[in-house]
Amino acid sequence: MTGVSAPGRARLGVRTLREDRWWLAPLATFVGLFLFVVYATFRAFQGAYYYFEPYLSPFYSPCLTTDCVPGSSDFGQPISWWPLSPALVILIFPLGFRLTCYYYRKAYYRSFWFSPPACAVAEPHRSYTGETRFPLILQNIHRYFWYFAMIFGVILSYDAILGFRNPQGQWGHMGLGTVILLINAALIWLYALSCHSCRHIMGGKLKHFSRHPRRYWMWQQISKLNGRHMLLAWVSLIWLVVADFYITLLAHGTISDLRFF
Amino acid sequence: MSRNAKFRVWRGDAAGGELHDYTVEVNEGEVVLDIIHRLQATQAGDLAVRWNCKAGKCGSCSAEINGRPRLLCMTRMSTFTDDEVITVTPMRSFPVIRDLVTDVSFNYQKARQIPAFAPPPDLAPGEYRMQQVDVERSQEFRKCIECFLCQNVCHVVRDHEENKTAFSGPRFFIRAAELDMHPLDARTDRREFAQAEQGIGMCNITKCCTEVCPEHIKITDNAIIPMKERVVDRKYDPLVWLGNKLFRRGND
Amino acid sequence: MSDHEEHRYDVLIVGAGGAGLRAAIAAREEGLRVAIICKSLFGKAHTVMAEGGIAASMGNVNSNDSWQVHFRDTMRGGKFLNIPRMAELHAQEAPQRVWELETYGALFDRTPDGRISQRNFGGHEYPRLAHVGDRTGLELIRTLQQKIVSLRQAEELAAVGADAAAGGGHETLDDTDAGLRVFAEVTITELLTDGSGAIAGAFGYRRETGTFIVFRAPAVILATGGIGKSFKVTSNSWEYTGDGHALALRAGSTLINMEFVQFHPTGMVWPPSVKGILVTESVRGDGGVLRNSEGKRFMFNYVPEIFRAKYADTEEEGDRWYADPENNLRPPELLPRDEVARAINSEVKAGRGTEHGGVFLDVSTRLPADVIIKKLPSMHHQFYELADVDITKQAMEVGPTCHYVMGGVEVDPDTAAARNVPGLFAAGEVSGGMHGSNRLGGNSLSDLLVFGRRAGVGAAEYVRGLGDSVPEIQDGALDVAANEALAPFQPPADGGIGENPYTIHRELQEVMNDLVGIIRREDEVQRALEAIDALKLRVPGVSVEGHRQFNPGWHLALDLRNMLLVSECVARAALLRQESRGGHTRDDYPGMNSQWRRKLLVCSINDGDAAEPAGITVTEEPSPVIREDLLALFDRSELESYLTADELPADTTASGGAT
Q1: Known catalytic membership, residue C124
Q2: DSSP per position, B235-250
Q3: What is the overall mean pLDDT for chain B?
């Protein structure tokens, strides 16, 4: 072994001397992400129960294929050749954004790949090259996914605004679903704006803040959000499930929407 | 107020060693380094340990306590329960010299490889003008006390000895970021250097460096990730590359 | 002698703090081959502990500042015992030395117009201290360390050609070929001279391996810092064992002003983990009060007559001052440092001290917790992290702590050359004279830079002047040094277990702290000298366990000799000087005496033998005359309180603005 038992280092004979519950955080992360992946995979392939007037599940927004249920396509149905669930066409973008996110990288490198499982706990791998080779070198395209995330932020906000209609399409109404979609859009914005790439693009790349006072101000605001990137990543992820599940239940007819006015 | 605590201290050298058990007096308000000193003065006169300021300012007394990289002088005894056995070992990423002292020359070699600050050729001493907001980011990294706990905890070299040639470690990524963000540094190739020579791509941002930093420098968020993004600007982002070519941006 | 490595350099620099590193840069830039010795790792020197800043009259914040004003402040602070030429050079050159640091990459805090910001500090007339928050010393060390790296890189670039190096700064130069090399974790135990007494090299050991290392070099610059580890309560680190002071003495040079040791009135005395660590004056400035074990604010009993008109008589008035300083007198907790230290000392001696020999400094009952955290964040953090003391809930125990030694090697102000020993130089805390009897805050870091550079240049000139006639180490000197260094491993002659070096060290610290501490009396200093003599006889019996590899007991055993020698200097000089001035307070001679200002006390070593180990001889010498143009910077009335009548300049009423 080449790591902590490499020649010359103090011979301790164990992977770690930590006695605290260092395995708890990676385990919790693993369980959380695993449950999300199971749910999201099922829902994405299901291709049904994603629209209930006027709410569209964020997993299916924008709905772009000719298979989309009537009323769910706010941007037309330009794709006719796609045989599978319409969600699968667009999910690559939010998925890619989260997959290349600096926080999620840390989370799954630790909890799924044990690289390392926790600080000062030896990892099980023989060799390690980090993000220098394919495929992990592709993590560097995170900022492109961020550009798309901005577009999705607009689309999900639009979806939330459409939620101010009643099932008959008349404006000026609101239900519990509207609130859920508004919160969803807000969380997606906050998560996307707290992104490290965003922080870089907005001002972090500058050498002289003093010459760009507005960008410095933006950088400062985004830095504050960035400090909560992990929290926003989790809350926005959970809320996606909440929003989707609520709409599924509505579409299923299991519950009915709580209408305010 | 004094009690006896059970300590296990690794004693040995490169040829081998083992954990030795000690029972030692502990008084109110003491830190682990005090206990190590008491061992030296009463039970183990030749117990090797590095230390200097004993105030968390010099970064000499780095070691591992119950498996976690810590400064001995900044770890209070009151954080342990009375019956807890406290295990003290040397840092595990560097060759051991004796007892708690390791050979940290890896870090000094890496320090020598980073091109130094390049003074602007057109300014004489005394003519430098920099704004506070422009120096603050680099100042955060200059808080570094070079305890090398981040270098020690980083799994890239901790778990893979062979990576030591290609990877310079968190301490020197913050040095790279410090220089790249320095308002008057005259070099323009810091990003290329960070990628090609320092191996910043090997970092998988699992943040242990930030977790152990006694100066609370946000190594990952404020230095490594911004440097990775700056590398992306140069290497992986054709839009930025094209923009720089077409518009020949000034020094921003 | 086998089992050792040898190196040959032009200049050997002992000490890698601010002064040593600045000297190394200067000597290397003069084209010399330079070796730097660090007792600990590179970049860990005690300079990192400096917080306040670097004093330099750049005039960035107040343009009225000038070197003359800085000189004046420095002389006042030192009570006119400073070597005037040193204070002059220091004040003149400090700005250039600070600006230079920026070209090495230092990042000081800035003024709104982008210059180096400067802060106010005690004793300085204008805002003068360049700083980086409260970690200026760290910035200084790191900057100089990185400049040393850059000199090395420039050398590599020159060696391999620009093409090869353009791709990256990979090391190409072998350590042994480099013109500038750092030897980390090496301790020098002896300076080596030729037959005539000129420097020829130095002898030491590597801490890591315990093996011996010999340097052949015609010039040695001492930059070893201070002596605080001879005292029980000190803010100094383990390295501060007075090595440079003792090396200079044993090589035949002299020390001056050794009686002047600066004690800060408020250092922690308890818990042990923070013993000696400074408690900043702003704790008192923001409302902290001193109480004895009876709960009484004792400072009201200690206001001297000359200050009575300026300080409050009652607690009520003192308390009102914090909110309304215009209409109230300040509380006596804010008297000058020496007054406060004396008062604390008296309370403890009168049996009204705390259990651990201090008094209480309390803000917890004076200010709400959130205000304390806001106003004293670093203090709150320091005690919380280091000592588990929450200063918003508990009082701190404080007492005077040994902070800095004004005395040191007697040097030529312009070249930093040590007296009597050709090829020996000294800079920084190990040199004496610059600060007189008391150092101003901020003048230490500038001292390091100004005289560090001068020592480097001075050594270069000396080495060039030697030409081919380089002094060589005397035959047999290496064996003597090696035997001496190994003595602690010899089992005691009587077959017993031998003396524990930690025990002797602790006893010495107690003697110095209790008997030659902040307040001194003839009989106590006498007792200290007797105790030191007794300890000196016990040192040869010290024996250590284990082997030579990184053995702290052995290291301490060797450092003990230095500490004893230096402690004897302090005690002997303190016994002779029958006045109170700056860092030397005599209970039995409380006033300042201008006749004594004219005298320097010079320590030198005398020969010893087996029965009577080498000791210290102190001689009185006249202090240097202050030049007329420098005297003209002061009002005559001020000079009258320091100088004797025949030293005063001719009284032409035109020149005296104050008359």
Answers
A1: no
A2: HT-HHHHHHHHHH---
A3: 93
Domain contains A78: yes
The answer as to whether A184 is a domain residue is yes
Q: Do residues B94 and A46 lie in contact, with contact meaning Cβ atoms separated by under 8 Å?
A: no
Chain B residues near residue A3 by CB distance under 8 angstroms: 158-161
Q: In chain B, which segments carry CATH 1.10.1060.10? A: 105-251
Q: Domain residues for A158?
A: 20-122+135-252
Residue type for C217, please? A
CATH number of the domain located at residue range(s) B105-251 in this protein:
1.10.1060.10
Pairing state of beta strands C34-37 and C11-14? parallel
Please answer yes or no on whether C168 and B47 come within 8 Å at the CB atom: no
Tell me which residue of A15, A55, A33, A51 sits closest to A166, measured CA to CA. Answer: A55
Q: Which amino acid is at C251?
A: A
> CA-CA distance, C75 to C82, in Å (whole number)?
6
The DSSP secondary structure of C560-592, one letter per residue, reads HHHHHHHHHHHHHHHHH--S-BTTBEETTB-S-
CA angle C312/C317/C318 to nearest 5° reads 60
**Number of folded domains in chain A?**
1
CA angle A21, A24, A27 (to 5 degrees): 150
**Alpha-carbon gap, residue C416 to C430, rounded angstroms:** 11
Give the separation between CA A83 and CA A77, rounded to whole angstroms: 13
Which residues of chain B fall below pLDDT 50?
none
Closest alpha carbon to B185 in C117, C21, C133, C146: C146
Phi-psi region of C22 (alpha: psi -120 to 50; beta: other; left: phi over 0): alpha
> Residue B240 and residue B63: Cα distance in Å, rounded?
44
Rounded-to-integer distance, Cα C398 and Cα C101, Å = 36
Handedness of CA A147, A151, A157, A160 (dihedral sign): negative
Pairing of strands A55-56, B3-13: unpaired
**Residue pair C331/C321 in contact by the 8 Å Cβ criterion:** yes
* Mutant choice from B36, B39, B51, B112 vs C, greatest count of C C-beta within 10 A: B112
Indicate which residue of C264, C342, C403, C577 is catalytic: C264
Superfamily of domain B3-101: Beta-grasp domain (3.10.20.30)
Give me the phi and psi of C46, to 5 degrees please. -65, -15
For residue C34, pLDDT over 90 is answered with: yes
pLDDT 10s per residue in chain A (261 long)?
578 989 999 999 899 999 999 999 999 999 999 999 999 999 999 999 999 989 999 999 999 999 999 889 989 999 999 999 999 999 999 999 999 999 999 999 999 999 999 999 999 999 999 999 999 999 999 999 999 999 999 999 999 999 999 988 899 999 999 999 999 999 999 999 999 999 999 999 999 999 999 999 999 999 999 999 999 999 999 999 999 999 999 999 999 999 998
Cα–Cα distance for residue pair A51/C33, rounded to 1 Å? 80
- DSSP code of residue B228: H
> Tokens at residue C470, please?
């380089």
Residue C86 has pLDDT above 60, yes or no: yes
What mean pLDDT is predicted for residues C348-375? 88
Q: Is the pLDDT of residue C165 over 50?
A: no
Provide the whole-model pTM: 0.92
Three-class secondary structure of residue C392 per DSSP: coil
Contacts of B45 in chain C (CB under 8 A): 500-502, 544-546, 551-553
Q: Distance between CA C42 and CA C24 in Å, rounded?
A: 13
- Over residues C489-545, the pLDDT tens digits come to 988 777 777 899 999 999 999 999 999 998 899 999 999 999 999 999 999 899 998
pLDDT-derived band at C655 (thresholds 50, 70, 90) equals very low
B31–C273 CB contact, under 8 Å: yes
